Amino acid sequence: MAVPTKREILSFSPMNLGDREELPRYRRKAFAAIKKAAQTGPIVSITGLRRVGKTTLIKQLLSETKGAFYFSFDEKKHANPETLRRVIDVFLEEGEKPTIALDEIFRVEDWAGILKRYHDLKIAKFIVSGSSSLMVKKGVESLSGRMLEHYLQPLQFDEYLELAGKGPQAIEPGGIFKARRRFEEELSDFLIKGSFPETLWMDEKTAAQYIRASTVEKIVFDDIPSTFRIEHPSKLYDLLRLCATNSGRLFTEVNCAEALQMSRHAVSDYLLYLNRAYLADVVYPAGSFQKALKKQKKIFVKTASIYNSLAENPSAGQAAETAVYDKLSCGKTYFYRDAQKREVDFIARVPIEVKYQSAIVSSDISNLLYYMKQCRKNTGMVVTRDLFDEKTVDGRKIRYVPLDIFLLSGP
Questions:
Q1: Which domain holds residue 202?
Q2: What band does 328 get if pLDDT is binned at 50, 70 and 90?
């Protein structure tokens, strides 16, 4: 196994040689918080989907940091403990108490144990990143109290607009009905290609191909098999496409297993891998977790653009519901469904129904009202295509909010 030379390590990035690297001017919303964390003692860990901007954010941080160095372990030839030790030693020779960024470090076996030894010597600050939350959890065990974790979300709609030159458009909580400017055209683009900064200026077809090749297939056929023993990665890909086609719909592991000719146990394992790689989530019905395990669950792919790039015959309604889930997914989110099959799409701070359609009639909110009465909720929300209104029905307030405005609202 060939370990890179000092010259190869230093030439990996211009900043390793003291030169400037051309970087985007735009900063993700998480930049300030991660920069602040990087100035403290603990190791800073950044995780998230491939291509959401982790590497760019790290390099932007380093460009504002004196004595900073960068190396990536994305290539298999570098993903080994010997190279990791050599990289750190070279950077320590080049700078006094440097800031060392190690991209995709989670691909290296025993990365946490190696990093712990250097960190405890207090001779450098470390920023690490990767595309799998499970590998971070493994590292947490040996780096207890030594690491701060940050999850970098896919690009959100307000960030997408700002990146596109539309200016900051986030709406503070409580200010949603002061926002009257609409972004219907931009929303349409966002749902198809908006989760990843690099797709902004691509046409829809190119963006879909890019998402499949650079994010989805790279994770399914490279990242996950390098971490877990996957006998048939193609089955994992088929399961993800099935999840995309059914994003927002009820599912059981048994039905998935029958559709893909897999065992139920394998489906459960594969769904866990997709979740840890930030590609798909399982959402449980509201109630006790033990009871929820026995009921039907919902499956969501992570973003509307992943949905549109993978689903068979994608629909605007499913894309909208997936986008709402993406917006809500950083908090605890459930759905409601009772024995009579009355269902509410999301139970978050308020119950939310997604009705992305041209007309909304009273029957469209009947389940929402039923849930609000049963659970004594005074306010509910309907995410719409165009309707922007607030009504009182049976003594309860229903807010009708267009999807673009909802996606711009505060958490």
A1: 157-408
A2: very high
Question: Which of 125, 151, 177 is where one domain is finished?
Answer: 151
Crossing angle of helices 316-328 and 184-193, rounded to 10° = 80
| Residues 136 and 204 both lie in one domain | no
Query: Which is nearest to 72 in space by CA: 105, 99, 100, 32?
Result: 105
Query: Of the candidates 231, 213, 228, 317, which has an alpha carbon nearest to the alpha carbon of residue 275?
Result: 228
- The answer to whether residues 144 and 165 belong to one domain is no
Cβ atoms of residues 398 and 382 within 8 Å = yes
d(CA 211, CA 201) in angstroms, rounded, equals 13
Same domain, 210 and 313: yes
In a domain, 324, yes or no: yes
Residues 6+ apart with CB under 8 A from 33: 150
Which residues face 130 on adjacent strands?
A: 47
Q: Residue written as tokens 């108490």?
A: 97
In one-letter notation, the amino acid at residue 61 is: L
Question: Are 25 and 86 within one domain?
Answer: yes
E-state strands within 28-170: 43-47, 68-72, 99-103, 125-130, 147-151
132: pLDDT confidence band, cut at 50, 70 and 90? Answer: confident
- Same domain flag for 161 and 25: no
pLDDT digits (tens, 9 = 90+) for 106-129: 889 889 999 999 999 999 999 999
Tens of pLDDT along 262-308?
Answer: 999 999 999 999 998 999 999 999 976 666 566 789 999 999 999 99
Q: Edge to edge, what strands does the sheet with 280-283 contain? A: 249-251, 297-301, 280-283
Model confidence pLDDT, tens digit, residues 13-37: 999 999 999 999 999 999 999 999 9
